[in-house]
Amino acid sequence: MATLLLKRDLAGDFFDPLAAFPDIPSVWSGPHVAMRIVEGFATLRLMPHGDRVGTRSAWPSYTYEFADLIAQQEQGELERTMAIQNRIRITPSARDVERALNSTYWPTKYLYAEQPELCEGVNAVAQAHGLERDAGWVARKRGGYADAWRERHDRGCEIIAAALIKDRVPVF
User: Do residues 105 and 126 lie in contact, with contact meaning Cβ atoms separated by under 8 Å?
Assistant: First the structure.
């Protein structure tokens, strides 16, 4: 009979409950500010749209009969239709919304009065990252060069980080 050796602390080597959470720095830095602004735009994108609140219904938009489902399966469209029907929208919590509103206001609060081009750069690149795009997308939409947009974004985030430290805003 073969001997089986078990390592008891094996679970400790592979499981880290805090691995899913990024390390929070002790003070604000430019990259951390940029990450929070991008998260803010992504959170605001998850909010339900107020203009369509009264027009939605709990009923499905179309009821499929058995013959419809068979025809969709033959055409290879059934999986896509089922995915559309099973899609749900998870709304962010009140804490997430508060953080999003605060962080997306920082460029306007700290940059707009004295350096509006940096404010525009921070907002444009952060919004692009919130839409899972890059600075090249911003350059194609607004003109200019992607490197210039990134440089404005990075300089603006450093200025915002210094202002947040000065205002003693707690790091989150």
Answer: no
pLDDT in tens, 136-170: 999 999 999 999 999 999 999 999 999 999 999 99
Q: Cα(30)–Cα(15) distance, rounded to whole angstroms? A: 31
Q: How far apart are CA 66 and CA 68, in angstroms?
A: 5
Q: From CA 8, how far away is CA 12, in angstroms rounded?
A: 9
Residues 154, 55: Cα–Cα separation, whole Å: 41
By the 10 Å C-beta count (0-12 exposed, 13-18 middle, 19+ buried), 80 is classed as: exposed
What is the per-residue pLDDT across 86-106, written as a single tens digit (0 to 9) for each? 777 788 999 999 999 999 999
